[in-house]
Amino acid sequence: MQKSHFFVTGDPMIYGADASIALATIAIVFFLTKFKKWNWLWREWLTTVDHKKIGIMYLISALLMLFRGGVDAILMRLQLAIPNNHFLPSEHYNEIFTTHGTIMILFMAMPFMFALFNMVIPLQIGARDVAFPFLNAVSFWLFFIGAMLFNISFVIGGSADAGWLSYPPLSEKAFSPGPGQNFWIWGIQISGIGSLATGINFIVTILKMRTPSMRLRDMPLFSWSVLSASIAILGVFPILTVTLAMLTIDRLLGGHFFTMTAGGNPMMYVNLIWMWGHPEVYIVVLPAFGVYSEVVATFSRKRIFGYSSMVFSMIAISVVSYYTWAHHFFTMGAGANVNIVFAICTMIIAIPTGVKIFNWLFTMFHGRIKFTLPMLWTMAFVPCFLVGGATGVMLAAAPADYQYHNSYFLIAHFHQVLIGGVVFGYIAGMYYWFPKIFGFELNERLGKWGFWLWQIGFYVCFMPQYALGFMGMTRRIYTYNDAMGWDMGWAPLNFISTIGAFLMGIAFLFQVWQILYSIKYGKRDVTGDFWDARTLEWSIASPPPIYNFATLPVVKDRDAWWYRKEDMKKAGYKKEPIKFEAIHMPKNTGIPFIMAVFWFIAGFGFTFEWNWMGFAGLIGVAGTLFARSFQYDTDYYISAEEVEQTEKALGRL
Ligand code: HEM
Ligand SMILES: [Cu+2]
Known about the structure:
By secondary structure, this protein is mostly helical. The chain has helices at 12-34, 38-46, 51-80, 90-124, 133-152, 180-208, 221-253, 266-300, 307-320, 336-364, 373-396, 398-404, 408-438, 444-470, 482-487, 490-521, 560-569, 591-607, 611-629, 640-649; strands spanning 583-586, 635-638. It has a two-stranded antiparallel sheet with strand order 1-2. The protein is globular. 47% of the residues are buried. The mean pLDDT is 95.
């Protein structure tokens, strides 16, 4: 590699990014120094093992990445708004759709999902933390450092441009020689290891750390959704790890797994990556289904309709989703019999999903619905996901897919399920649990502006794309000529679509404003049960004390907190005297953060094929593992008196 290629040059947008990165860094360093916050940053955040704080860090990262992915989206839509546009050169367009797709799925949806896991699960099952708090911190920092490694490719070395799943032969060295593709590999590889560890952590947490009286069949549906998503993570993330390792061997060591010329086969990569990739989209949507279930029950003020069928549907979805991957390449030429199997399996998924939709509707039926922000997002999800699901069944019809494949019809379909299903769900979850984690209320009026602009923007942006697909517009094209634009009618629809993208951009700004405004002016929640809700997380203070539960809650039924509230309202209810005990807690440690820094060094070194640096980083990683195994002072006790005092100060006695 030539030195002159190190910094990306020649594009005003890149210089703008250079300048803003430099300014932001200087500003952060300045304020941390001025307000003497370095110590606070290290003690309270960088070394924390508290699941609530880790959840908050995931949330902030996800919102930042939503912003970056959103800017990418707006740039692409600007480019496509009119025919014959040369605002973005073609290579730059390729880089942008690649980074947009990668960031939205791996560095926005995944951390948003892990934010909800961390902020909610221990509280919802009556636990004091996750099963492995240290590993949880390692997972976060691996995700974060992987995301940073991927993101700096924008200004250093150049971005990947072979699409969000980087199919060979395009992603092989012969066709993508620069470091961009390596950034993609190492960014995802490092954060992927973190995701796998998170999956394991939450399976064990949910199975082993529930308050002893909570039976599985009384567990809230969000916890069930996290369990099924985590099992799917455990099943498929190793496939991603291995696939990326094979691509690394091809690129860095001259292997030929995926190169035809030496007996390899690129279709092998396509199969492998979708064996992970398809379950991955169900991994991100299942927790959203969990959120909808909690929100619908709380704001219809009813028990969820069809609890067991909800659990069975989620398990069915996660199992069947393993057998659908080839629907992404019906046109590969595997033959009719293979296509039939995968088409049918794909269509089968519509059944459990339909069951869930009916259950949500029946829960709302005859309920006293409160139209709060989380409920609005949930109600908007139902029709949106229905249409997205229906177009999915259209795509699953293998012969018809020969028409839809690689067209804007597909783009419209997957954005409809990813935005209408996943993003709406995570936003609903963020609004729902915000008062719990932060202890104050979010402004409704600004939130409603955000909501309606998102909704209108979504349909204006993506409905025209279905039509564009039928009119022959293929995905991943950076421009189209006047004849297509005006005579074939692509231009007006593309222009409308771009307007929709801007509306969603404005909607996001309203949400940022909403959060900033509420930090300053939001009313404190002193009840701990802001929505008059049903599950255990609402039975403790907001924000919860470090140990979550002063005494482990007793669960006799589903919706444990709701029925305890009913009991408390009964005449002659006597509060049982509480006996406080010392609580065992994990100690903060800087090792996960330091380990991630070494991973960054390793990833950066291998990206530029500076092997000395790559191996130095790996040795550092091994060193931190070694250091951890000699760390004996890893836990402490909070005394019974201290717990009692904290509870008193929180007004909980
Ligand atoms: C917020 C509004 C969004 C807009 C306006 C938008 C727009 C776009 C556009 C214009 C493309 C490129 C189409 C092409 O040239 O082929 C694209 C691709 C893509 N988007 Fe989005 N997007 C949005 C949100 C999302 C979200 C939330 C996700 C995932 C959670 C997502 C995932 C993807 C993926 C995976 C691709 C394919 C990238 C590739 O072809 O390699 N997008 N999007
Ligand atoms: Cu799929």
